[in-house]
Write a structure and sequence with these properties.
Blueprint: E1 31-35, H1 39-51, E2 55-60, H2 63-73, E3 77-81, H3 89-98, E4 104-108, H4 113-122, E5 126-129, H5 134-157, H6 161-182, H7 186-199, H8 204-223
Parallel strand pairs: 1-2, 1-3, 3-4, 4-5
Helix pairs in contact: 2-3, 3-4, 5-6, 6-7, 6-8, 7-8
Amino acid sequence: MSAPDSPQPASDDDPSHVDKDTSHIPPLTTRVVIAEDEALIRLDLKEMLEEEGYAVVGEAGDGQRAVELAREHRPDLVILDVKMPVLDGISAAEKIAEESIAPVLMLTAFSQRDLVERARDAGAMAYLVKPFSKSDVVPAIEMAVSRFTELKALEKEVADLSQRLETRKLVDRAKSILQTEYGLNEPAAFRWIQKTSMDRRLSMQQVAEAVIQDAEEKKAAKGQ
C-alpha cells in the first residue's frame, strides 16, 4: 500500500492551520472536577482554571469523592492528585477510565517514571508535576482532552482491546513523525490520520503503518 499524501508543513497562510497562540484557549463551557487533598493547592488550581475560562463544577479532597462527583456531573475533564486519602488518585483514575466518564489529568509531586507509567496504565491521559504554573496547566489539559478524544475514536474503530493497544502505539509513532517532519501539533497530527483514514477508506492503523513505512524508507534512502 502506498503511503497517504503527506500533510503540508504548517503555515500561517494555511487556513486549516491552528494558530499556536490561540489553540490552547478552551471554550467557556469546559467543565472540570478537581480533587486535591491540600486545600490551598486546590484553591490555587481552581483560580487558575477559572481565569482561563474553565468552569469548576466539583471539588473533592479525596479520590472516592472525586469519582462520585465525576459520575454526578459527567464533566469534560477530571484533575486528580496522586496521593489522596480514602482512595488514591491512581485508583480513582482507574474507576473513571473504566466507566469512560472523562479524560483524567494527574497531579503529582513526583516525576519518577514508574509512577507516571502507573498513572498512564490506570487511564490518565496526561500529568503535571507540582509545583506548576498556569502556563503549565493549560497545555496539559489540552493534551489530556486531545488524547481522550483519540482514545474514543480508536474504541469505535477497534473493538478488541489488545488490537486497540497495538493500534494506539502505531498511531502515537505516526503522530510523532508527523509532528517532527511537518510541524503539526499533536491534535492536528491525529486529525490528519483520522481524516486520511476516512478519505481513503483505510483503518487508522493502516494509515499509521503507511506513515511509519514512508518515514523508514526516507531514512534508509538518506543513509545510502
